[in-house]
Amino acid sequence: MNIIFLGPPGAGKGTQAQRICAALNIPQISTGDILRRAIKEQTPTGLKAKSYIDAGKLVADEVIIDIVKDRLAQEDCQNGYILDGFPRTVPQAEALTHIANIDSVIELAVDDQHLINRLSGRRVCLKCGATYHISLLDGKTTCAACGEELIQRDDDKAETVLNRLTVYHDQTAPLVSFYEEKGLLHRIDGAQGMDVIFQSIMETLGVK
């Protein structure tokens, strides 16, 4: 089963994709994770992508499409996958039709103010990748898993989040109409509890 997850930044696409992948035994293909790894390793593609991300903009299509095409060709994708963070634009979606057959598109819908509160309060550990929210940290500033200091990523700051949401509505939201017209879109309320969202997605996919 080949699935796309859609939704604004912070909607919970990555978290739900991990759970669905584990349940269906298929890989999660997160362009965000691939790009962050490239940025950390300071590869040419990573440095190019960093200039876009730091400005709160979407990474150029040619960079993303090449990454996704190579990833889908790998053996572990032959029985299905979840695309998380791609496509982001209609041109990317059109390019995807030439390299993949998509079975279902899940949209996690969340309003902007909820997302700003959610993302601007997020803190991450650069060492182990653990993620926390200030509402649950009780003033703590270190990672419970490894003890390293927690930081706020530049792209989680309120002003950058607002810019990211503006970019999403301008460039990515049209994908909803694109896939709706193809009869592939299924909308899920992304403001619900994580377990409720998971069950809703599984039911939508026809998995018990």
Keywords:
about 210 residues; alpha/beta; 5-stranded parallel sheet; 3-stranded antiparallel sheet
Description:
α1 packs across α10 and α6 (112-120) crosses α8 (158-172). The strands form two sheets. The chain has a five-stranded parallel sheet, with helices on both faces. A three-stranded antiparallel sheet has the order 6-5-7. It has helices at 13-24, 31-40, 44-54, 61-72, 90-96, 112-120, 134-137, 158-172, 174-181, 194-204, and strands at residues 2-6, 28-30, 81-84, 104-109, 122-125, 131-133, 150-151, 185-189. It is globular. The protein is an alpha/beta fold. β5 (122-125) and β6 form a beta hairpin. The longest helix is centred in the last third of the chain and has 15 residues, at 158-172. The mean pLDDT is 90.
